[in-house]
Amino acid sequence: MKKQPTSRKLLRIHKDDNVLIVVNTVQPGDKDLVEDREIVFTQRIAIGHKVAARMIRRGEKLYKCGVPIGSAKEDILAGAHIHLHNLQSDYIETYTLDKDRVYAK
Amino acid sequence: MLSSATKLEGYVRSDGRKGIRNCVVVAYLVECAHHVAREIAESFKGEPVHLIGFGGCYPNAYADRMMNRLCTHPNVGAALLLSLGCESFNRHKLAENIATTGRPVHTIVIQQTGGTKKSIDAGVDWIRQALKETAQVPRAPLKVNELVVGTICGGSDATSGISANPAVGRAFDLLVQEGAAAIFEETGEMIGLGDVMASRAVTPELGHELRLSVDKAAYYYRQMGHASFAPGNAEGGLTTIEEKSIGAYCKSGDSPISGLIKPGDIPRKGGLYLLDVVPDGAPRFGFPNINDNAEIAELIACGSHVILFTTGRGSVVGSAISPVIKVCANPETYDRMRDDMDVNAGKILRLEASVDEVGEEIYQKLLDVASGVQSCSESLGHQEFVLTYKSFEPIGPHCLPA
């Protein structure tokens, strides 16, 4: 893993990736460079989570480590948090606990 | 090359394999004998006496094979079998197979021995003697190319796939370079990656088998209605099974894939192997592996001397028989749970170390543990063990190319 020239918060794992990995928790108001453009985060995003490296269109495949990890459920702006709300598996639905601790899709 | 300074010695077994540990296993052959077995094992706290077993009363070829492989594992020096007396498990054949390897073995049938108390006393007496006998097992120099190493991830979060798992991949590359056998597994966590993996096979026919194993896993999990994906994974930032798959997959490193094995198949030469843990045929007994320890037991049944276990959220488990080395992916988890963690791969995320550097650190830790140094989970007394019902067909002719 090479040094990050522009960011101390976001890590690009593979050159073909259109998602970046948060390596230092991001707070609302934090700024960082995404594709050489400054973006301002509007929410807290924890370590290990993903943000869009660029504008992504609905239906487009998302790539991490150079491998597809599913498709965008909606248009995603550069720098936006990518998770269950906007990314779906191309194989099998993801189940998790919702905010009321109920097992849900 | 790295770490030539670490001198390894193994316990010599009759089949030519060598152990890095020399434990006595106490194996219950049905849940009804579990308590007696546990009481016996617990009388030897701090000594190398490990509890394993199979809880089912109905016969199962897979469980039978697993128990045979585990009781004759190179890290095992002797075995005490605990039978209630009326279960289906073929205790006679198991004892016979163990005896054939020259290991001390003894069977206590609780109904014949006169119940709980007498069985515990008889077991404790036997183990006391067995420990004396196993202490006499000859030792000989052990080369890295005689080692079998398994890897698994558990309690994953999105850091697992970007720090610890790629670093284990690097350690796997070093092991394969040195001629060791390295086993990665959990085809259920490689859904979406069949083609990527097939392209690394040493023959096209093996590539086809690898792809089929992932297809089988995808089908099986669809029947179960769940992917291998827990709520904690999503909290940690993983969104889809494919994304989790990449994390599991990159533990395999970059070496060519030399073979596809199933639980109980022991690689006979060095190289990188995929362990197919998803049962064959229609889903019959539920989820392929009910938890991480079920997978660890399968890696050990394939001969693994040591397990490299990557975790982001912070698993604490160890295992009976073979030591488990914890590689912690998440620097925050490492800070919180460092007594349980052998290697801090979170340094990669803090941009304090490269994947290669942590890979070398894992390799060195592995040699230390192989030389007798206890891993964290081992010194904390973790000896979890799980074995459930499954069914497998033997591997096909293309799975282990010459």
Offer a quick outline of the entry:
The complex is a heterodimer of chains A (105) and B (402). Chain A is built from no helices and eleven strands. By secondary structure, chain A is an all-beta fold.
SSE layout and pairing:
The complex is a heterodimer of chains A (about 100) and B (about 400).
Chain A: E1 10-11, E2 19-22, E3 31-34, E4 37-40, E5 50-52, E6 61-64, E7 67-72, E8 81-82, E9 87-88, E10 96-97, E11 103-104
Antiparallel strand pairs in A: 1-2, 2-5, 3-4, 5-8, 6-7, 7-9, 10-11
Chain B: E1 9-12, E2 18-19, E3 23-28, H1 34-42, E4 49-53, H2 61-71, E5 76-83, H3 91-100, E6 105-109, H4 110-113, H5 116-134, E7 139-141, E8 148-153, H6 160-177, E9 181-185, H7 194-198, H8 204-224, H9 231-235, H10 241-249, E10 257-261, E11 271-275, H11 292-301, E12 306-311, E13 324-328, H12 331-336, E14 343-344, H13 355-370, H14 376-379
Parallel strand pairs in B: 3-4, 3-5, 5-6, 8-9, 8-12, 9-11, 10-11, 12-13, 13-14
Antiparallel strand pairs in B: 1-2, 1-7
Question: Can you put this structure into words, describing what you see?
Answer:
The complex is a heterodimer of chains A (about 100) and B (about 400). Chain A has about 100 residues and is an all-beta fold. Chain A contains no helices and 11 strands. With about 400 residues, chain B is an alpha/beta fold. In chain B, strands 10-11-9-8-12-13-14 form a 7-stranded parallel sheet, sandwiched between helices. In chain B, strands 4-3-5-6 form a 4-stranded parallel sheet, with helices on both faces. In chain B, strands 2-1-7 form a 3-stranded antiparallel sheet, with no helix packed on it. In chain B, helix 1 links the parallel strand 3 (about 25-30) and strand 4. The longest helix of chain B is centred in the middle third of the chain and has 21 residues, at about 205-225. The model of chain B has no long low-confidence stretch (mean pLDDT about 95). The interface of A and B includes residues 21, 65 and 83 of A.
